[in-house]
Structure formats: structure tokens, C-alpha cells
């Protein structure tokens, strides 16, 4: 069973979204208990790069496309694929999603449709709610959905 400090984890590292946090903190010389906000952010972002590399690459590529076209990009990935699982880990939680917007998406807004559709919108633009609702329905009614959605 993995041990962090004096606490035992009750699940395996593979169950965690970012199992490399302790390693990244050590590599950066950051003591989590006394770290500043900036140091904690560096640790999380470093762990995201290490543990979720397919999703980070995907978001960086789609951010470049969104900036180049000036239009939102809509993803549709198999939620059971390694990429789909990594995207879900980043997009489903507020902290990871906001850090991804800042560090991997260059400030673009990152939205997420179930399942598994990241949406990047041009800087300063809020995605059109009606368009997102229609796309969400299409991802659930079989129009563009994967079998396991």
C-alpha cells in the first residue's frame, strides 16, 4: 500500500487522476504543507503534464486550431479510450479544468460535454448555450454518440 507521510492510501495509484503529485513536488523542491499558491499550481500542472499527457497534447493542439480559426472547436472522443479518460479527468473537475485553460489552452474557455466532448472557445467568448445543449443532445441520442455514452 503506498504511503505519503504517515497516511496510508486506501486505493492504488492507478485510481488517482494525478498519482505523480508527490514525485513532482519533490522534483520541484516543494513542500506541499507550506507551499505558496504558485508552488501548488506548478505541482498540479507538472503532474497533469506527466499523468495526463494525451489530454494535455490534445488540448494544446485544439487550442492552436481555435486561435487559428477564431471559432470554437468541438471534440468527440471515445470515453473509454485512454485519451477519453484523461480528458474526463481534466475537464470534470473545476480546478484541473481552470488550470488547463490557463496553462494548456492559452486562456481559451474549456467546456465539456458528456461524453466525451471537450469544447474550446475563442478567448473572451462564452460558448453559445443553445448550441451546446443541441450538441449535448446529439451526443446522447445516437446522432454522434459513442456506444458507451
Summary?
The protein is mainly α. It has helices at residues 21-28, 37-51, 53-69, 82-92, 94-103, 129-140; strands at residues 3-4, 7-8, 73-74, 109-113, 117-121.
What does this structure look like?
With 149 residues, this protein is mainly alpha-helical. The protein has 2 domains: 1-51, no CATH class; 54-149, no CATH class. 49% of the residues lie in helices and 11% in strands. It has 6 helices and 5 strands. The chain has a 3-stranded antiparallel beta sheet with strand order 3-5-4, with helices on both faces. Strand 4 and strand 5 (117-121) form a beta hairpin. Helix 3 (53-69) crosses helix 4 and helix 4 crosses helix 5. The two termini are 33 Å apart. 28% of the residues are buried. Residues 1-13 have low confidence and may be disordered.
Decide which structural class fits the backbone: mainly alpha
The radius of gyration computed from the alpha-carbon positions, rounded to a whole number of angstroms, is 17 Å
Strand order, largest beta sheet: 3-5-4
Question: CA-to-CA gap between the ends?
Answer: 33 Å
Shape type:
globular
pLDDT below 50 for ≥5 consecutive residues: which ranges? Answer: 1-13
Mean pLDDT level: 84
Number of helices: 6
Number of extended strands: 5
Helix content: 40-55%
- Could you tell me the strand content as a percent range? 5-15%
Largest sheet: 3 strands, antiparallel
List the helices and strands and how they pair.
Layout: E1 3-4, E2 7-8, H1 21-28, H2 37-51, H3 53-69, E3 73-74, H4 82-92, H5 94-103, E4 109-113, E5 117-121, H6 129-140
Antiparallel strand pairs: 1-2, 3-5, 4-5
Helix pairs in contact: 1-2, 2-5, 3-4, 4-5
Amino acid at each position: 500500500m503506498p504511503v505519503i507521510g504517515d497516511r496510508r492510501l486506501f486505493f492504488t495509484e492507478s485510481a488517482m487522476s494525478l498519482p505523480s503529485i508527490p514525485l513532482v513536488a519533490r522534483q520541484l523542491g516543494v513542500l506541499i504543507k507550506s507551499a505558496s499558491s504558485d508552488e501548488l499550481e506548478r505541482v498540479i500542472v507538472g503532474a497533469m503534464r506527466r499523468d495526463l499527457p494525451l489530454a494535455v497534447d490534445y488540448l494544446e493542439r485544439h487550442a492552436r486550431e481555435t486561435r487559428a480559426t477564431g471559432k470554437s472547436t468541438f471534440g468527440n472522443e471515445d470515453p473509454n479510450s485512454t485519451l477519453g479518460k484523461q480528458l474526463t479527468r481534466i475537464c470534470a473537475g473545476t480546478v484541473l479544468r481552470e488550470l488547463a485553460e490557463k496553462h494548456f489552452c492559452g486562456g481559451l474557455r474549456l467546456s465539456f460535454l458528456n461524453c466525451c466532448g471537450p469544447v474550446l472557445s475563442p478567448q473572451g467568448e462564452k460558448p453559445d448555450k443553445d448550441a451546446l445543449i443541441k450538441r449535448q443532445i446529439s451526443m446522447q441520442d445516437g446522432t454522434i454518440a459513442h456506444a458507451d455514452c
